[in-house]
Amino acid sequence: MSFAIFHHLLLLTILLPFSFVAQTVGNFPVGAALTAGGGASPWLSPSGDFAFGFQQLENKDLFLLSVWCEKIPEKTIVWYANGDNPAPSGSKVELTADHGLVSRNPTGEQIWSSNITNGQVSHGVMEDNGNFVLQNGSHGVLWQSFDHPTDTFLPTQSLEIGGVLFSRRTETNFSQGRFQLRLLEDGNLLLNPINLETKLAYDAYYVSRTSDTRNSSNSGYRLVFDAAGGLYILKRGGDGFFLSTVTVPSSDFYQRATLNFDGVFAQYSYPKRSTGSTNWSTIFTQPENICTAINGTLGSGACGYNSICSLNDKQRPACTCPQGFSLLDSNDEHGNCKPDSEVGCEGDWLSSMEDSVDFVELNNTDWPKSDYELLRPSREEECRNSCLHDCLCAVAIFRRSSCSKKKLPLSNGRLDRSVDGKAFVKIKKYNSLPGERKSWRAVIIAESVLLGSSVFINFVFCLRFFFYLRKLRKNGQGRISVETNVHCFTYKELARATNDFKQELGRGAFGVVYKGEMQIGSISAIAVKELNDLVQNGEKEFKTEVHVIGRTQHKNLVQLIGFCDEGHHRLLVYEYLSKGTLAQMLFGKSKPSWSLRIEMASGIARGLLYLHEECSNTPIIHCDIKPQNILIDDKCNARISDFGLSKLLMMDQSHTRTTIRGTRGYIAPEWFMRTPITVKVDVYSFGVTLLEIVYCRRSVYTETDGEEMILIDWAYDSCREGTLHILVEDDVDAMNDRENLERLVKIAIWCVQEDPSLRPTMRKVLQMLEGVVEVPIPPNPYSFSADC
């Protein structure tokens, strides 16, 4: 008996290490987990070449769930999850049977999931080729990282039609960047910049030309990276179009192909038996010169706006600001450059331009897509003088008897010998006073010296100066803040533009809105909001907040054009949007389509996310989100109005809870409690608005029998009873899309939770709207005992 027990103990002792290895190298069972910053070993492939786990980022409190090259000192990341939202320290990733990989933050909120829907996960496998695979009990593949590439391609991996690689934002910022590689339906492989807000693809700067409309067998259908290092587009007829003809033995080298953050797609190799300080070697790059390859009319080019691109010794773009400009973000060398001082059309610019402006000369430099005038024939001195006396001209390029004038912002800047010309970049000579003050400083000094002995003449001079200032005051439309592009108007200008404020567009919590006519650039119609309940004697604070609002630039926000701060008059000027409000569309006779309503909901969410997290260091809380404050532009984009106004109306208050702001039916419960007001009040109002978008009914509406209904209550009860479709039975598209219908209502119920801590952030809301993260079943918004 004792021998048998000893025998079993001995056998267990021998097998335990092997059992432990089986769970930590190669294969990992359901229930296995890793913690960010917990010090646990990552999940390794059998050879130990690749690892899966949390990589610590430059911000030591954040971690990236990723796959990396374990045996390379710099631990090069080849795949990652959720780059836009890295995991805080203490986050956990667990392998589950129902959803595969699930990552949660320290409070238990889900950050990311592999979202398995096609079976039960049995185990995970970290393969020696860098692919992390989730398998079922019969070793069938349910999910694999190779099918969800980020910015890097590995040997044995392929990219099918519709597949995309996205660059990261910077070398150390794994948020989605400005460039993408994609294989189109026609068989072409493209590299192109994108608009970060909407993901719109701009003009391609590389096209493989593997599309043949006359013979489909000559068209590409798959990008292949084979084990020998061959990178090619496989054609339907069996032939291959090679991007790189250099092959490197996989037994001796690690390999990868990466779409770098600067838009260059490159293939690299790294010796496996390296003993010294080795770096990745470049095998090929595409394009060869990205500075000149990007030539689209949209976007900033390889570098930021007003920057100059040149190639470094690794065929990668180096970006510099010209003299007189500096980086907008000092931490982003490839970002935008801003003028160090204003050179524009302020004040009496014509008479003072020659005294205050100088030119920096740059050889073989051009911004080819920023031209607005072409002078031909022209001589070099004529070109220079034409730009000097044109307040809109920021740069003039002279080449071969022609002169092209350019205005800010400058795009596609490059240093290129083929330019064969000279650039004259306009800069300030010295830090002079702004516009009109500068020209009058010289006048004051001169006339004071010449006329100082005469009291009468000095009186005449002062009178002249007074009338000059009055003239400037009348010309308010010309006074613009270069930083924010916000105009300063006089009250008379706005009274004249609105025909003495005759046509009222609407009234709200913040004041009355009037329609006006005024030509400002391409804008001819304006909306003028006369603010009420403003703090008196708060001129400095008012202007500060107006400029904060003016700096906001987003597709889903109504742009502030200007303001008036004259005596007791405080007015804001916006562009006029002719399609009216979201309320008019939702509650009118003809409802917007189901797909348009979904897109509008996402647009509002993007605008709120920008206000809460992205536009400044301090969140902008709207305080009155509702369909009446959502305007619709000509392209049917939903654009939030009245943002930033709640702070303007409460500048003398230390806590926003001292005055309730908002509209019945949309007001979050914390307005009535002794609790701080945060961005979560906007989340609540968005939830109510989302229900109105879904059902095209007001948050408080009256049934045919006269009974008053609260939309939140009805939606929750219907969610619990499975009858969400009842109020959309006359909407065929919504009825045919019940999955989305249920998802949107569940998101709305999460947003209107009585407890603010249970409401998601707008970033999480947008992820749920876009289907990036799963929407769990919400609890009762008023009590926490039952789920729907």
UniProtKB/TrEMBL annotation:
Enzyme category, top tier: transferase
Cited InterPro entries: Bulb-type_lectin_dom, Bulb-type_lectin_dom_sf, G-type_lectin_kinases/EP1-like, Kinase-like_dom_sf, Prot_kinase_dom, Protein_kinase_ATP_BS, S_locus_glycoprot_dom, Ser/Thr_kinase_AS
EC number: 2.7.11.1
Catalytic activity entry: L-threonyl-[protein] + ATP = O-phospho-L-threonyl-[protein] + ADP + H(+); L-seryl-[protein] + ATP = O-phospho-L-seryl-[protein] + ADP + H(+)
Keyword tags: ATP-binding, Disulfide bond, EGF-like domain, Glycoprotein, Kinase, Membrane, Nucleotide-binding, Receptor, Serine/threonine-protein kinase, Signal, Transferase, Transmembrane, Transmembrane helix
Annotated Pfam families: B_lectin, Pkinase, S_locus_glycop
Domain Bulb-type lectin: 19-147
Compartments, record wording: Membrane
Chain sites annotated for binding ATP: K529
Domain Protein kinase residue range list: 499-773
Membrane-topology descriptor: Single-pass membrane protein
Cleaved signal peptide residues: 1-26
Similarity section: Belongs to the protein kinase superfamily. Ser/Thr protein kinase family.
Protein name: Receptor-like serine/threonine-protein kinase
Phylogenetic placement of the source organism: Eukaryota, Viridiplantae, Streptophyta, Embryophyta, Tracheophyta
